[in-house]
Amino acid sequence: MRPKPLNENIRTEIEILIHVNDSEVCIIDAKNYKSKFPLSASLASHMGSEYIPNYQGYENKSVSYFGYVTANDFSGEHNLKKISSKANAINNEINSLGAIFSAKALLGFLDYCLEHEIEREERTKYFLNLFKSSGYRNTAEMFNMIDSD
Length: 149
Description:
The chain is α/β, with parallel strands linked by helices. It has one domain. The chain is 39% helix and 24% strand. It has a 5-stranded mixed sheet with strand order 1-2-4-6-7. It has a two-stranded parallel sheet with strand order 3-5. A hairpin with a 4-residue loop joins strand 1 and strand 2 (24-31). Helix 1 crosses helix 2 and helix 3 (103-115) packs across helix 5 (139-147). The radius of gyration is 15 Å and the shape is globular. The termini are far apart. The relative contact order is 0.16.
C-alpha cells in the first residue's frame, strides 16, 4: 500500500502495488468518487506519463499492468489504451495493460474464487487476464471476459 516511487523527489504515489512475479508489477490507483469516476484524458495522461514511468524498474521489475479501483460506477475506459500508448512513448520498454474495476466487482470476484477454492495461481491468472483495456462493473462481466479466452 502506497509504495514510494523510485525517485524520492517525486510526490506522486500510487495506492496499491502488486508484485506479480519476479519481473513484473501491477499498479492500482483507488478512486473514491461519490457517483461515478470519469477516467478523463488528463487523468489518463497522469497515469501514462507519471505513475507508470515513476514505478518502472521498482525492485528491478516492469510495470506490466495498471488499473483503477472505483468506489462506484466509472466511465472513460477507452482512455486505457491511451495510457498504454503514452507510457510506451515515454519508455519503449514499458508495455502495460490496463483495466478499471468497481470495488463491488473486485470483491465479488475474490469471494467467488475463495468460495470455490480456486488456487492462488489460478486466481492470479484469471485476474491478470482481465487487463485488456476494459472496465468491469460487476463480477459477471469479469467472468464473461475470462470465459472468452
